[in-house]
DNA sequence: GAAAAATATGTCGACGTTGTCATGCGTCTG
DNA sequence: CAGACGCATGACAACGTCGACATATTTTTC
């Protein structure tokens, strides 16, 4: 193992001087600095993080604890955002998934503690309210895509589902749609309620009556084993005499079934029925024909901002532990037409 | 910080005895062991990995270096497999993404070295042949979902695209299909060639002529910015007088467009045209109606086995650095009918 | 019942790094 | 020119853990 000591020997200086060079401390002659740097290059020296950590009790490592995020296709962009931030700021990321099991969660907190993690990003796959088993370990924590249930608040960052659904609804209304169908997300998800509320409120404000709305449940049951009514619901909705001219889908994935249901009934998209999604899950939204108009969940930014926020918490700046919210931008594609 | 020393003080023994208890070494009375364990619990002691590593020069940590895997929806199951193995075997996972940039890659290898990583899993999003910039760091490495180009071989684990496509083709042939269309994956991907070869070979063996086959390119161009011809290709294919009774899609995602193309032409699936995918990317294969018959990429097992294999390499057992291959199981759903 | 073996516990140092303090040298101030 | 100051460097200890070795106690063996 090539250590600071071997570098010092080769450069003909003390180890402390090498340490100074490595850490960019002042009070080193240009000449010694160069000698040391050459020795570092020649020997291929790399600092030993474990030793640093033991000395400084700072690991420069953040932990991600997730339910399924990194192992599920949907919210990977959160992780990407975090990693990009970490990369740009010289931090390392240690990742663990609970798979939803709370005994796992406790084990993971212990593991984080063991590794002297500086801070934890608590990430969930679906936007929801939870009660993190922080294991009372006292590591600074920021929640991403979820919000703590209990009063002992942790700072959190969430997508603005309400605003996203409101913008989407307005978009349809502005294009002349007055009969609108809505196929609901699984009600366990926080987004489901927020999106539906926004839909109801916005159509109401615009003067639509309850009879102009056609609302159906698309999915229900435990995440990962839900019952799927989307195709049936869409088919039924589109067979009504007075069928909606536009359908809002709880998310993009569900929109696949709505497309297929519409086409099976011989309806053209968007001429006969307009469809909008939610999430901008691009594997779907860009694969559908016509491409899907939808509201983009700000996953990447959630990750980036979350890491940034955690960093300031760790650095000790007094972040008030409130919930920060990021907007969902409307992505206009070709699945909606004006009437 | 509660260390071994504080535990020793409380338990009234030497630190070495505490160390012995922690590591389950023999030669400790039942009585002392209990006293120590109680002290550990009372103080909430957790071993300090950094210190351990510095002492033993083993970190019990594996690194994942990926192009985009963990930040892309497709192959997250590889990561899940690795993490499950790590969890079950008390290893920790450090994860980094190159985003495809090779200067990133070098940086990441340095970082791994800095952290004293025991072994590295080199994972790619798409099955392909690459030349890893291992940074000549000499950390044991196993490649997952890819194969090294150069002669200095590293052990690798890959999916058996050929077998998967062969089984899928046979499945169609056995059900009486004699006119079969094929929409090709992006040819940069190793899977594209293997799958197409299998399709050609298997139909040929079965006695189909080239004229019975209708092969079109679905996508091309750099990953992430490819040109997409799928919808057009499928539409054109299905408008032929002598249209195929079944279409094999390069992957599940492309099948979305094939479904829509077929339906737009008023064709029913599977009565008028059968469709099979590849990958079993469940967000798609289970969302399509009828659900998609496909071959499942063994991603989870790739991860699990890869971690296992890396572990034996690290432990020093002489693993011959050859390529191991895992089969793609056919998943029968409802998108194919017998003629 | 003495020597040998097995069991139980302790002391000490080293891993690689950096913070604290000390030292040496040159330059400035009055 | 004495003292103060700024700069450049080094000596040393300490972080938490565990391996090597030493010591103390008990058990086995003939």
General description of the model:
The structure is a homodimer of 339-residue chains. With 339 residues, chain A is of the alpha/beta class. The first copy, chain A, has three domains: 4-47, lambda repressor-like DNA-binding domains (434 Repressor (Amino-terminal Domain), Orthogonal Bundle); 61-160 and 300-327, Response regulator (Rossmann fold); 161-297, Rossmann fold. In chain A, 41% of the residues lie in helices and 20% in strands. The first copy, chain A, contains twelve helices and 14 strands. Chain A has helices at residues 4-11, 15-22, 30-43, 49-56, 76-88, 102-114, 161-174, 190-205, 230-239, 252-264, 282-285, 299-315; strands at 61-66, 92-97, 119-130, 141-148, 156-159, 180-184, 213-217, 219-220, 227-228, 246-249, 274-276, 294-296, 323-326, 329-331. In chain A, strands 2-1-3-4-5-13 form a six-stranded parallel beta sheet, sandwiched between helices. Chain A has a four-stranded parallel beta sheet with strand order 7-6-10-11, sandwiched between helices. In chain A, strands 8-9 form a two-stranded antiparallel ribbon. In chain A, helix 1 packs across helix 3. Chain A is elongated and about 90 Å long. The model of chain A has no long low-confidence stretch (mean pLDDT 91). At the A-B interface, helix 4, helix 5, strand 2, helix 6 and helix 10 of A face helix 4, helix 5, strand 2, helix 6 and helix 10 of B. The structure holds a DNA duplex (30 and 30 nucleotides).
